[in-house]
Write a structure and sequence with these properties.
heterotrimer, A mainly alpha (296), B alpha/beta (380), C mainly alpha (300), A: 296 residues, mainly alpha, 11 helices, 2 strands, B: 380 residues, alpha/beta, Rossmann fold, 2 domains, five-stranded parallel beta sheet, 13 helices
């Protein structure tokens, strides 16, 4: 059962990674916490659901949903962040206004779904199980692991090797210096928001599919998990977020399996608190990734 | 929802004006106050829909006598205790309002009961919490407490199915579900069943992979899932996917008695046992007619809470009519009449609704089983 | 008047409680700590009072004091790790604090009643008691604001490095701010449980955090008038328009975005600032005209 639980944890953790990457990317570039990220994730699942039940092929529904959540994220930037960023010292105001966006999106989803729990119709994705070395793994789990691996690799390549990636890093390090070098910071912001939104949207669809459940509150637990992931991984660190996500996924599976249930949250958030205390830059945090994470 | 309540207020306002025109017609004013939005909306909204249908039908049939009408409006407290308190306080300040059908459940219902007893204003809460009754003579409960309902499924587990070991999965963050689960555990333990594991999930959870693997890889004769319908279907689905032994009996309580359960669970919930006051589609003349009329009006089939709302309104209406016939259509009169209701025809349980001396409602329960994608009465 | 009071009494009480929680939230923000720990403090205070009041014979008055002290102590302890963090990390850490408290309340069934919470709490608190406590709180905060401490808080919020270069011991003032925030959160949490008969962990979740944050952001983060205006608007809004009440969460969201973007000081603070500016302008004008008069005398 131990290996099976680790596998369960890795699958959950890989979806956390997809979710947290966008969150940590925005923080890395803008130094702002986007609390509406959870609602974007939820919107992804909702949009794909309504596309699927209105007859769109599932693959197209996913594509459409990622596009839409990318645009939603851009809207969040325009509505909640842009004005505040111009004024400067936006850390706290941006947290507040993104909570505002979160409330609005969640409220819309509640009205649309009539507070019901939705799920993708049976047969949206073939249910098939394989037994490998005594492990029970579904086709869906394999596809999710593969998709996440490919996307994460692509994102790392994009950030490290392409012009856009260099621009992103330049803006993240020093916006003004980057602007002097001819980098259009606004466009970098819009692109990072789009990528973050699209990844969150995809994560929403995958979670909705994997656990047969789509509901207006589904973003909240994932948002709380993302805080844990980015703190442990180091806010703004892509590699850290991935490792921390997988660790969180496994840790969660194991606490459910072997410890009194109900304590999972207390343990995870206690851990978060401890990490903040001992290593405020996260276990894998690159000190340079988040300049000024602690008081100097 | 908004338009609906606006329209209702408009019609009731129109009804009041009409009533003013004819000299002998009496208007009885009651308010359906439920959680139409927020956490308890899945109960409150459905109860309100059922109750509105009942009230409309009763008015149409002239139930309250020639020209007399029940004037009702629907209010929403958004599952927010503060709004409940303020709404009931305000409604109580209007002397024409005889009673409130509501609020829904949980802390909202208890808070409502408190203020109702303080203001001497009858309320019939949807909950089954005995504390609402104990709070004072003005607060009633509409559904049967766990001490009446849970023995039906606990006896079935221990005696009819004869299981020896059971794994229990419940909701840890909702007090109504916790209470039902506790009751079940006590009853089956008393009957000699051993509880091998006990896990709690949160209402917002959907990732049960770790829990499912844990339960599927341990050994037990039965799994009791005490969660709301959609979540329960999902847990059972994930249990089956994790490879739960197909011979394991899966049981749940009355929350599963909803079309949602079958819709979300599909083939995975085939064979699951549950208790329900409502047999979908109805199981006698009155309840079948209700099922038909409800679906015609709303466009979707009635579930347990719709049927409860419909039945509750029958009881409320009988109480108001009894009070009026006794020449005492006051809050006190309605309260006393409500406490004395016996054998009111309803669409749930064994089709009659009775309050005992302690004002505890009884209308019976049925053990159901999912067969070919439908709820059927379980084999004895 | 009495009729009005009876019909609207719960709204008035709700308003007073919100003001109290608002001050707890405000005092942390005022000292420059991005804390959302008030929900945790309120939960501690209310559970402490509820457990003592239902399970022991301790006088009610004393239970409230103990609840306040407990939350204040926890606030003081919490301030130590928080002092090492900055900005967003403080927000995350305090959120984690609230989550830990909530899950422990759910878990510690034997003691806290789990999801069922605690019922049958005596209703000892009424509008007048709440009003008196709010008044005393305001008086204390007003005195703190006028003292040197208030000025240090303002300095910390505006520019921490400046404050520290001026030789202000930042850690000490953060701890004081947190003890005050904890005490107020615990005090009003305790009063709330003596008012609502019954409490459960759910009462102090995300919705609570958002409501209190809205009160302070909308009202203002530095003046005493801030939380009053914020709580007043939030209490009246659902009464003025029922459709707004049905979409309370979305309305909260719109308010948060609009206010933080276009009125970053909040309604209450803006009002106070406006009066201050007017007073200053008048004084300047007075000085200018006096100077003019003097100049006129000396040149002639």
């Amino acid at each position: 059962m131990l290996t099976q639980q680790i596998l369960n944890g890795l699958v959950s953790g890989s979806v956390y990674a997809l979710f947290s990457l966008g969150f940590t990317l925005i923080f890395g570039v803008q130094k702002l916490l986007n609390f509406a990220h959870g609602a974007t994730f939820m919107a992804g699942a909702f949009i794909a659901y309504y596309c699927t039940i209105s007859g769109l092929p599932f693959v197209m529904a996913i594509g459409f949903s990622m596009l839409a959540t990318g645009l939603i994220a851009i809207l969040i930037d325009l509505i909640a962040f842009r004005t505040l960023r111009k004024r400067g010292n936006a850390e706290f105001p941006a947290l507040v206004s993104s909570i505002g966006v979160d409330l609005i999106l969640v409220s819309i989803a509640q009205q649309v779904s009539n507070t019901q729990v939705l799920n993708f119709p049976f047969g949206t994705f073939p249910i098939q199980f394989y037994d490998i070395f005594g492990l029970r793994i579904s086709l869906l789990q394999i596809v999710i692991l593969a998709t996440v691996a490919v996307l994460v690799a692509a994102l790392i390549f994009y950030l490290k090797k392409t012009t856009f990636g260099r621009q992103v890093r330049a803006v993240a390090t020093n916006e003004r210096a980057a602007a002097l070098l001819g980098v259009n910071a606004q466009s970098v912001y819009l692109q990072t928001f789009f990528i973050a939104g699209a990844l969150a949207g995809l994560a929403g669809v995958l979670i909705g599919l994997l656990f047969n459940s789509i509901q207006f509150l589904m973003g909240e637990p994932y948002m709380l998990r993302a805080f844990v992931v980015v703190v442990i991984g180091g806010l703004g660190s892509v590699q850290g977020a991935i490792i921390a996500s997988l660790m969180l996924g496994v840790a969660q599976s194991l606490t459910v399996a072997y410890l009194p249930s109900g304590l999972t949250d207390a343990i995870i958030f206690g851990l978060l608190f401890l990490v903040l205390l001992v290593r405020p830059n996260g276990l894998f945090g690159d000190i340079n990734a988040v300049a000024g994470g602690t008081r100097q | 929802m908004k338009t609906q309540s606006l329209m209702l207020t408009a019609t009731s306002a129109a009804a009041m004006m009409l009533a003013g025109a004819s000299a002998h017609a009496e208007d009885y004013k009651a308010v359906i106050l439920q959680s139409l939005t927020g956490g308890a909306a899945f109960i409150g909204k459905n109860v309100a829909d059922g109750a509105v249908l009942a009230a409309e039908e009763l008015n149409e049939q002239g139930f309250f006598g020639e020209g007399n009408k029940l004037v009702f409006s629907v209010e929403d407290d958004a599952t927010d205790r503060t709004q409940t308190l303020s709404l009931i306080t305000r409604l109580a300040a209007d002397p024409a309002t005889l009673m409130v059908m509501g609020p829904t459940s949980g802390s909202v219902a208890l808070a409502g009961a408190n203020v109702a007893n303080e203001r001497e204003f009858p309320v019939m809460t949807t909950t089954n919490s005995m504390e609402v009754l104990e709070n004072g003579p003005w607060s009633f409960i509409m559904t049967q407490p766990a001490s009446i309902t849970m023995p039906f499924i606990a006896d079935y587990t221990a005696e009819t199915l004869g299981v020896e070991t059971c794994a229990v999965i419940g909701v840890k963050d909702n007090e109504a579900y916790v209470a039902l689960q506790r009751m079940y555990e006590d009853l089956i333990t008393e009957a000699g069943v051993e509880i091998v594991s006990n896990d709690g999930v949160a209402l917002a959870d959907s990732d049960f992979s770790a829990l499912a693997t844990k339960v599927a890889s341990s050994d037990q004769d039965c799994v009791f899932v005490g969660t709301p319908a959609a979540q329960g279907a999902n847990i059972i689905l994930q249990l089956k996917q994790a490879g739960l032994d197909p011979d394991t009996a899966i049981l749940g309580h009355n929350a599963f008695a909803s079309p949602t359960f079958i819709e979300k669970g599909g083939a995975a919930v085939e064979g699951v046992y549950l208790i329900g006051a409502w047999v979908p589609g109805g199981d006698n003349e009155f309840s079948s007619a209700f099922a038909e009329n409800f679906e015609e009006k709303m466009g979707f089939p009635a579930d347990e809470w719709n049927a409860m709302g419909y039945s509750g309104m029958q009881v409320v209406a009988h109480a108001i009519r009894d009070a009026a016939e006794a020449g005492n259509a006051t809050r006190e009169g309605v309260r006393d009449a409500l406490g004395e209701q016996k054998d009111v025809p309803v669409v749930v349980g064994t089709h009659t609704y009775t309050l005992d001396e302690e004002r505890v409602p009884f209308f019976g329960m049925k053990v159901l089983q999912v067969k070919d994608g439908e709820f059927t009465v379980a084999p004895e | 008047m009495m009729q009005f009071y009876l019909a609207y009494q719960p709204i008035i009480d709700f308003f007073l409680l919100s003001v109290g929680f608002g001050y707890s939230q405000q005092i942390a923000l005022r000292a420059g700590v991005f804390s959302i720990a008030t929900a945790g403090f309120a939960a501690l205070g209310s559970y402490c009072v509820a457990i003592l009041a239902t399970k022991t014979g301790i006088p009610i008055f004393l239970t409230v004091i103990l609840g306040t002290a407990l939350a204040a102590a926890v606030g003081g302890v919490l301030a130590l790790p928080l002092a090492r963090l900055r900005g967003a990390f403080q927000a995350i850490a305090t959120l984690a604090f609230v989550q830990i408290i909530l899950s422990l309340l759910l878990y510690g069934e034997g003691f806290t009643g789990g999801a069922l919470g605690i019922v049958g709490i005596p209703r000892e608190v009424n509008t007048w008691i709440l009003l008196a406590v709010v008044a005393v709180t305001m008086y204390v905060l007003w005195n703190i604001g006028r003292s040197g401490m208030g000025r240090v808080f303002n300095a910390l919020r505006q520019e921490e490095s400046v404050a520290s270069s001026l030789g202000v011991n930042i850690g000490k003032y953060h701890i004081i701010a947190f003890i005050l925030s904890g005490a107020l959160g615990g005090l009003f949490g305790g009063l709330q449980s003596l008012y609502t008969f019954q409490i459960e962990p759910h009462n102090y979740g995300f919705a609570f955090i958002v409501n209190i944050l809205t009160v302070v952001i909308l009202g203002g983060r530095t003046t005493l008038l801030g939380p009053i205006m914020g709580a007043l608007i939030m209490a009246l809004l659902p009464e003025i328009a029922r459709p707004l009440a049905e979409n309370r969460q979305a309305v909260n969201g719109v308010i948060l975005i609009l206010v933080i973007t276009f009125l970053p000081n909040g309604v209450g603070d803006e009002i106070v600032f406006w009066f201050r500016r007017r007073k200053q302008a008048r004084q300047q004008q007075k000085r200018a005209s006096e100077k003019e008069a003097r100049d006129a005398v000396s040149t002639s």
